[in-house]
């Protein structure tokens, strides 16, 4: 009985530590995002970009993705912590949970590389304003319609389903140790990117550093991935995004 009580206390402590670490990372990321949104006259205003400019833009995208996507992965982290404690009652879960989170963030860091290159390319052909907003009616419409169509596809639905079942994912793909946890983080992060990457394109429509849009997308992703009835979000958001894109076109 004492062992059971000690194990329960250890599991509770682990979950608290992991949750506190995630909250701290998200808060720091959003402090950065808010400061950038208030002070950004734009990397996008530069006529000729240097390697340093590209690096700063990459850092901006990476921190944005941490702030926007980590909250939706909290169920994954907490379920992993509980499963680790259950399998290894005499070991703490913080180190493997950190490895899991690093794997998840690594995939979104890869997405940030692509987003950085995409933003640079759009700037080179003058399709983004200095405030990182689309200057093309056609581009804006395409981004919105593409996001709406993707929200309605079976591919997006199946990837979202995997994201919404973290416990099932863990039990199906369990690997031991910190290396195994990192690989699971990579896999789950890949499902998450696959589920959301087209949606991120609308940031180029409304402004990459548009704070209200960033919050709206973050809340939507959290609802879609982690909250009850989130699976219906695509059925609702898809037609709305398509309608918005058509409206922009005409």
Summarize the helices and strands and which ones pair or pack.
Layout: H1 2-39, H2 51-69, H3 74-87, H4 94-124, H5 137-151, H6 154-163, H7 166-173, H8 177-196, H9 202-206, H10 211-226, H11 233-249
Helix pairs in contact: 1-2, 1-3, 2-4, 3-4, 4-8, 5-11, 6-8
Helix proportion range: over 70%
Please identify the structural class as seen in this structure. mainly alpha
Beta fraction of the residues?
under 5%
Strand runs, count: 0
Runs in which pLDDT lies below 50 for 5 or more consecutive residues are none
The run of helices and strands is HHHHHHHHHHH
Reported for the largest beta sheet, the result is: none
- Overall shape: it is globular
The figure for the number of domains is: 1
Taking the alpha carbons of the first and last residues, their distance comes to: 69 Å
Radius of gyration: 20 Å
User: With helices defined by DSSP (H or I, 4 residues minimum), what is the helix count?
Assistant: 11
Mean pLDDT across every amino acid position: 88
As an assembly, this protein is: single chain
Describe this protein's structure.
The mean pLDDT is 88. The termini are far apart. It is built from eleven helices and no strands. With 250 residues, the chain is mainly alpha-helical. The chain has helices at 2-39, 51-69, 74-87, 94-124, 137-151, 154-163, 166-173, 177-196, 202-206, 211-226, 233-249. It has one domain (2-249). The radius of gyration is 20 Å and the shape is globular. Helix 1 packs across helix 2 (51-69) and helix 3 packs antiparallel against helix 4 (94-124).
